[in-house]
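A.,

Following up on our hallway conversation. Structure tokens first:
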């Protein structure tokens, strides 16, 4: 009797283990696979400015995320949390998660745009992350700026050549761009340099970027979408931000039709656009619900409703760089 009970208990435990949701992946143009959803790790800005990291809040979030099945973490040198991400990965790898199962993305900051500065910058990130390689290294912005705040006019083609060196050295398995526009990406392609595997840009209900997504689809460049919740939450929305908020009646009705939350239907819509969303969450409950988005699909009518929220509205225009020749966004903001 005891043995039978034990067997049942063990098989239930095993079942649950195997039942951890496995993230689907997409194939990059360099042949590698990238998980379809990533945990974001930028702590964000409050009304008083940048939120500084404390000690282990991001470490705990990354551990919680890996425990529920996330296999992709998005970070950056500029977020000042690579050390926390590194500790979380080390812990999970020590507990038996194979390093190859994880996909770690980080980014080159604007003060290291010289071609020969890229590899040393990546080595610094790798040291903080306690890794031999990252899966994806991105140029964070096309705009260069020295640490004394004066603009660095180094051309992003030079920076990209440094990224190609990092890949050749095996320090980054894949390389890509963030916050580049179509003309800037074209410039790289026309110079017969490596095609970026990924473009990471803001994509959410108010900024759906249909033209840029179509361009990337045509060039076989995968798109990661940052700030997936846009202005859904009043704490993050600027006063001029267009609707909807998280309690919008139409969104709530939509979520109810699938027995899902508003954030889950929003993430499913972004997945359906072909985007790899990067929801950031420190709360364990948020981390879990944001991952439970692979088991349903939106109807054509509901997708159309979502599409109608597009307002070409950017939450992160970075206007402080608007005078830089490589400022990537529309200037009439
Ligand atoms: N390449 C770039 O230039 C760039 C720029 C911006 C962002 N990013 C990346 O994209 C990631 C995401 O963007 P983001 O951090 O700007 O914003 P976001 O992911 O759209 O929103 C994060 C906020 O939403 C809250 N939240 C998350 N899940 C929730 C849920 N299920 N219910 C209610 N609230 C929820 C979080 O709260 P809690 O934390 O309290 O749980 C946090 O306050 C960043 O962390 C970063 O990795 C990249
Ligand atoms: C966050 O705040 C800092 C300091 O005020 C500012 O320099 C930075 O541009 C802000 N970042 C974003 C993405 O708004
Ligand atoms: C800022 O730093 C750059 C690079 O180190 C240097 O060339 C430039 O002269 C500095 N500018 C000022 C105003 O200090
Ligand atoms: C609705 O979702 C909740 C939470 O995921 C779950 O517990 C419940 O069983 C679901 N109800 C139906 C009718 O599917």
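Then the amino acids I'd put at each of the 333 positions:
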């Amino acid at each position: 009797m005891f043995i039978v009970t034990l067997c049942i208990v063990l098989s239930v435990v095993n079942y649950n283990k195997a039942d951890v949701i496995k993230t689907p992946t997409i194939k990059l143009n360099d042949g590698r696979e990238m998980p379809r959803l990533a945990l974001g790790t930028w702590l964000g800005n409050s009304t008083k400015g940048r939120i500084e990291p404390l000690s282990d809040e991001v470490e705990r979030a990354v551990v919680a995320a890996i425990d529920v099945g996330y296999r992709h973490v998005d970070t950056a040198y500029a977020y000042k949390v690579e050390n926390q991400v590194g500790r979380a990965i080390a812990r999970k790898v020590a507990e038996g998660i194979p390093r190859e199962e994880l996909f770690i993305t980080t980014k080159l900051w604007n003060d290291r745009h010289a071609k020969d500065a890229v590899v040393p910058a990546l080595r610094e990130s790798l040291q903080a992350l306690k890794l031999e390689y990252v899966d994806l290294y991105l140029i964070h912005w096309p705009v260069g700026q020295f640490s004394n705040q004066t603009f660095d006019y180094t051309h992003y083609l030079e920076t990209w050549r440094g990224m190609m060196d990092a890949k050749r050295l095996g320090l980054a398995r894949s390389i890509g761009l963030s916050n580049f526009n179509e003309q800037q990406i074209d410039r790289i392609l026309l110079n017969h340099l490596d095609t970026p595997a990924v473009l990471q840009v803001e994509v959410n209900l108010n900024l759906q970027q249909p033209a840029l997504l179509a361009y990337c689809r045509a060039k076989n460049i995968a798109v990661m979408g940052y700030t997936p919740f846009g202005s859904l939450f009043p704490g993050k929305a600027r006063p001029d931000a267009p609707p909807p908020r998280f309690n919008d009646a139409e969104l709530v009705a939509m979520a109810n039709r699938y027995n899902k939350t508003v954030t889950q239907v929003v993430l499913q819509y972004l997945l359906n656009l072909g985007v790899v969303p990067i929801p950031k969450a420190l709360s364990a409950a948020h981390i879990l619900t944001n991952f439970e988005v692979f088991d349903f699909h939106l109807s054509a009518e509901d997708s159309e409703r979502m599409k109608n929220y597009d307002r070409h509205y950017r939450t992160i225009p970075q206007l402080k760089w608007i005078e830089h020749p490589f400022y990537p966004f529309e200037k009439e903001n």
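The chain has one domain: 4-321. Curious whether your intuition agrees with the design.

B.
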